[in-house]
Amino acid sequence: MINTFEELTSKTRELIESRGKPRAGIVVPGRGKCFEAALKAESEGLIEPVFIGDEPEIRKLTTEAGLDIGRFDIIDCSSNETAVREAVALCQTGRARFLLKGSLGTRELVRLLARPETEFIKRGQVFSHIGIVRTRHYRPLMLITDGAVNNEPDAARMIAITQNAAAMAARLGFDTPRAALLAAVEAIYPAVPVTMEEAAIAKMSDRGQIKGVYIDGPLSFDVAIDAQVARSKGITDSKVAGETNIFVAPSMETANGMYKAMIMYAGAAGAGIIFGGSVPVATTYAVDSTENVINSMMLAAYLALQK
Amino acid sequence: MNSISAGERITSAEQIILAARELARGGRKKMVAVAGASDVAVLGALASANADGILDATLFGDRDKIKQAADGGQVDISKFNIVHSDNPGRAIHDAVKMADEGRADVIMKGFVSTSALLRGVLSKEFGLRVKETISHSAVLDIPGYHKLLQMTDGGMVVRPNREQKIQIMENAIMIARALHLKPVKVAFSGAVDGRHDDMPQTLETAELIETISRLNLENVKVEGPMTFDTATSAEIAKTKKVFNTVAGDADIYLVNTIEECNIIAKALINFADTVFAGVIVGAGVPISLVSRTDTMTNKKASVSVACLIAEYYQAAGKAGGGR
Q1: Do A266 and A145 belong together in one domain?
Q2: Domain total in chain A
Q3: Of A60, A71, A75, which is closest to residue A30 (Cα–Cα)?
């Protein structure tokens, strides 16, 4: 089980040594942390970047960075739309193993990825965003979902995003990951629809309808992270309370705010992935440091190379 | 910083507590009526706040149980008056009555259910029901943020509609006024910044903000929808090209659902050393809420902020209902 980003990076390095450096499609690089992180990861021998976007602009950026442009592949695309399509095509033909979101907005990227003609997702598959946080206050990695793709998930969607996170957690070596469906309270109230929906999903889990993951909910955040608080609130037979790996938020704002609160104010390290498509997409927010962007790439690389 | 002058802008939990003490020193010490006082966490907070010269308290509930709770936690309650009652309903009734008659300035929730307490406060028997919407505000002192951030509503209104959001905002603005903030900067939450046609919630929020700006609230700036990072970091706001006077400098973060507020606030409290003062506003007197899991600083900050709100109501002659 991977518990830290250091462990993740060293495991990814092992995979790189045995299977070769992964080619990474950098989608619309733009100026900023993503570009810096891609160059840094390249210089450390972790990835081989392919820049997808406006070629003159990319040439300008690499020249500014004092780099020989001849070292990198560039796929010239005049619009973000073509860039995303080309990026996915690159992966489908095996010429890139994962993608990194550059300067285009998450919202736009998601919209372009979701287009059927992009063929990023298989029919019936759901893709979702998973934020990964490591804080000194909590031992395992925290997987937070969904802060960027699925807005206001209904019960079916909530199950799907939980399963996506569970699938990713399993790939990181979590033995039956534990998912908390978060709410403001642990009690189930007919007047609070979120608690009813989450309780129903937890019941489905109890009855074995959802495999490969323990699910409990509704759970408040403090119950999810602290076994003692859970006991004091009478939650004694939960496989999740106090040991949560996956934090499933009832709304996009919640997951988004949680992740950012942890990065900005809790000194946490982070990473972000759009999971469930044909390749992993490393996706970061403006709050993320260059280190976090590299963490995201290492996670995407690990998931891609492990297959 | 160990002093604060009257009327000075309050920017930290420590200053909340200091300002409440200054208020008491200036002859405006507040009386707290505790409903169901047999709660050691509540008694501990009150005894400590009383020793600091912040407040006086009257304890309502079963006399023996109150004494037992105090003894069990080694809390000295000799400075407080106890009004015995046989059952929680009676304790609530008597505490609320004391506030209604103007003999108490703040109500504090002890070992009674929140819903029973609110039913008591809002009962037609008393004149404390001054507003349609009662809301909970988490006044947060987040290390790394340059001012206090109020997040609301993570405790009362499950999924506020337009009108409720306006009232929650007004309630929060009153707290901001009690903290002497001028102007008051309100950020409405969103999963993304700005309006997006494919996200109806963002359009509703943008429209609501337009409505609010037509109210011409004095010294209030309202913007949104915006994400948590945009609301609390000027640097991020600049990176994202969100240019307005609220972004990066929000006093109030007004969210869309109870879960959003509750979960993000708890993440900050548990993992980011955030001091949290919880208070219910919208009734004729502020209601202080603390829980066993709160630290002593949280508890003192909660009751102190309630004292400051009570002072604001009294000074402005608002009794909780004004804008």
Answers
A1: yes
A2: 2
A3: A60
A178 shares its domain with A66: no
State mean pLDDT over A282-293.
95
What does the pLDDT read at residue A177?
97
Cβ(B171)–Cβ(B279) under 8 Å? no
* Model pTM above 0.90: yes
Longest dimension (CA), chain A: 64
pLDDT band at A117 (very low <50, low <70, confident <90, very high): confident
Instruction: Tell me whether A151 touches chain B (CB under 8 Å).
Output: yes
B264–A contact, CB cutoff 8 A = yes
B137-178 confidence digits (pLDDT tens):
999 999 999 999 999 999 999 999 999 999 999 999 999 999
B48 touches chain A (CB under 8 A): no
Inform me whether the pLDDT recorded for A108 exceeds 50.
yes
Q: Give the CA count within 13 Å in the CB-facing half-sphere of A92.
A: 13
A143 and A71: one domain? no
pLDDT at res. B322: 39
Residues A144, A115 within the same domain: no
What domains can be seen in chain B, in order of their start residue? 13-132+278-316 (3.40.50.10950), 138-271 (3.40.718.10)
Q: How many residue pairs from chains A and B have C-beta atoms closer than 8 A? A: 120
Give residue B323's pLDDT band: very low, low, confident or very high (50, 70, 90): very low
Contact B83, B103 (CB under 8 A): no
Same domain as A174, residue A147: yes
CB contact under 8 A, A253 and B144: no
The answer to whether B47 and B76 have CB atoms below 8 angstroms apart is yes
SS3 call for B299: helix
Query: Which among A107, A251, A286 has CB closest to B257?
Result: A251
The answer to whether the Cβ–Cβ distance between A250 and B259 falls below 8 Å is yes
Question: How close A265 comes to chain B (CA, Å)?
Answer: 6
Where does chain B have alpha helices with state H? 13-23, 40-51, 63-72, 88-100, 114-122, 162-178, 200-213, 228-232, 234-239, 258-271, 296-316
Is B142's Cβ below 8 Å from some Cβ in A?
yes
Interface predicted TM-score of the whole assembly (ipTM), two decimals:
0.95
Give the model's pLDDT for residue B318: 62
Q: Does A30 touch chain B (CB under 8 A)?
A: no
What's the CATH code of the domain at A26?
A: 3.40.50.10950
- Cα–Cα distance between B150 and B172 in angstroms, integer? 7
pLDDT at B321 over 70: no
Q: Which domain holds residue A21?
A: 1-120+278-307
Judgement on whether residues A116 and A141 belong to the same structural domain of the protein: no
Report residue A82: phi and psi, to 5°.
-65, -35
Both A258 and A284 in one domain: the answer is: no
| A254 and A140 part of one domain | yes
> What mean pLDDT is predicted for residues B294-309?
94
pLDDT at B292 over 80: no
